[in-house]
Amino acid sequence: MKPIKTIFLIALFLLLSVNVNAQVHDKSWRSITERKEGSWFASEEAKTIAENVLLYQRDIGGWPKNIQMQHPLSDNEKQELMAIKKDQHEVTTDNGATIQEMLFLSKMYRQIPDERYRDSFLKGLDYLLEAQYDNGGWPQFYPLKKGYYSHITYNDDSMVNILNLLKNIKEGTHVYAIEPSEEIIEKIKIAFNKGIDCILKTQYKQQGVLTAWCAQYDENTLEPAKARAYELPSLSGKESANIVSLLMSIENPSVDVKNAIVHAVNWFEKVKITGFKIERQFKNGRIIDKKLVPDLNAAPLWARFMELDDNTPFFCDRDGIKKATLAEIGEERRNGYAWYTNEPLEMIKKYEVWKEKNSISTYSSSKSPVDEYNLVVAKDGSGDYTSIQEAINETKSFPYQRVTIFVKDGTYYEKIKVHEWNTNISLIGESKENTIITYDDYFGKMNLGRNSTFYTYTLLIEAADFLLSNLTVQNTSGEVGQAVALSVFADRAVISNCNILGNQDTLYTSGEGNRQYFKGCYIEGTTDFIFGKATVLFENCTIHSKKNSYITAASTPKGVSYGFVFKNCRLTANENVTEVYLGRPWRIYAKTVFMNCEMGGHIKVEGWHNWNKPEAEKTAFYAEFENSGEGFKPNSRVGWSHQLKKSEAKKYTIENIFESKQKDTKEQWY
């Protein structure tokens, strides 16, 4: 028989062991919310913490951040929290706020079906749905707080946390014990899809090639944005990893999602840092120094911040000045911030499984084409490239023979530039209706000063001898001012059987002396939707006005024989459009002629407008010849316009309009 003292000590030890296991006050709030579900969430301690969680929740539905909810509250503190329930300041999803509290309440509700837990959870859900921007992103704080807090925030996984919560609820995974109504679930599905769309649209492109994501984006322009002084616009090696993991969790992913994942993983492989590790020195449990040191056996690392144009890692102190190495910044930021991460390692392991599951064994963004003069672009990875810009970038500069880029059906959300050295390219779509190049920049979004219009293009062609055929080019920004779909700044360019869609300034045709031929195209817009100074022949095209305004705004240079010439075209309009001018002079020597065109009743009887430039009436040349339709009123046109005689009209041949600059050319480019 054991002595009583021994038995007492054993019993005391067991009691203390139970109490230690039950107590969580020494843990962080995050670790409590992530605690495995079970009976502890029915304990008195858990119920006490839950009361705190309910108290901290604001009436709008969210919670402030960095609150250790498990800490006991005095009566005065409880009264203060009740008094600020209506206060909407500092409510956020940053640092896990709101998401953590909702997870905790769900685990409580599974053990104790207290309707207050359920109501609080659903109020938090309403808050998340209300806080989402129309473009699918979420700000760091809602209601919006001035400064970088209103930016779309991937930093510290804020938006990924929200989307993971919504995904679990909409898919009925039972991760959360509280199920909202069918009406709310439908809203969640819409919000989730919008969020994924925002992620796809913000994936950063270097020279047209998809890479990864930045920590935050401007909520209006979707351009990379700055946060704190040392958090400059940059590609993120940390946040991007969990974005990819989220995308890989989507069942039956779209081609766009697959494309985003593959390109991101390719980028991670490209920028990983090998042969180094982070070495930390501690004193009294605190980091007093942090260094990057050589270690050939170390696992790969990724920099937290990388340059947008070339992926070079950089580091910043609170002065916001970029440094090349960690050693160059002060002790406080060097040791107090996570400048390197290994989080992508887990994501890359998941990728191998995902790749096999989704049959991505041959899906690559960097395959070498079999024939460098005949390239195929396909979003599903069945071609040589998944991006049009990638294919253009990989063509030879100034090739001796024509390069044909065939683009399979799909919607390519790309801002594409064909550089001056990418000559002799034919970009041909599989079908005009289903091969779509789309983007959504506009004047206010670019915010680059008075010339912002010229940066808004979806597709910019600078290279000579370019052929564009059998596809759609569109700017989807809507009626928000100047927004170019197609910008052609090239000589000897042929655009055939294409849809060119937009609103104001849809088509910019420019370059002094440049000659461009549009054949069998559908071109639509609102104001000045065909503008520029190139010599352009539009033949057998449909020109569609979406509102009462002006079709053309030529800026033909002085002394040029031909400006815009429309032959055998149809001028149509939306049903409610009744007052459209054929053109007005962007510059006073504008030249525009309509010949043998069918004009709808929406064309104003005056035909032309001087843009409040009386001097243009003497210098501009606006003319017509044998047009037809309800909108052709030759006797009612402004007195300073012209009706061509047959002898004059005979000069408007394709040979004359595009007079050769090389007399010995055997085969005309058009």
From TrEMBL:
Annotated active site: 528
Transcription regulation listed as a keyword: no
Domain Pectinesterase catalytic: from-to ranges: 374-658
Keyword Signal assigned: yes
Keywords carried by this UniProt record: Aspartyl esterase, Hydrolase, Lyase, Signal
SUPFAM superfamilies in the cross-refs: Family 10 polysaccharide lyase (SSF81853), Pectin lyase-like (SSF51126)
Molecular function GO labels: pectate lyase activity
EC numbers for this chain: 3.1.1.11
Enzyme class: hydrolase
Alphabetical list of Pfam families matching this protein: Pec_lyase, Pectinesterase
Reaction equations catalysed: [(1->4)-alpha-D-galacturonosyl methyl ester](n) + n H2O = [(1->4)-alpha-D-galacturonosyl](n) + n methanol + n H(+)
Signal peptide span: 1-22
InterPro entries: Pectate_lyase (IPR012669), Pectin_lyas_fold (IPR012334), Pectin_lyase_fold/virulence (IPR011050), Pectinesterase_Asp_AS (IPR033131), Pectinesterase_cat (IPR000070)
Pathway in which the depicted protein is active: Glycan metabolism; pectin degradation; 2-dehydro-3-deoxy-D-gluconate from pectin: step 1/5
PANTHER family reported for this sequence: ACYL-COA THIOESTER HYDROLASE YBHC-RELATED (PTHR31321), PECTINESTERASE 53-RELATED (PTHR31321:SF57)
Family designation: Belongs to the pectinesterase family.
Protein name per Swiss-Prot or TrEMBL: Pectinesterase
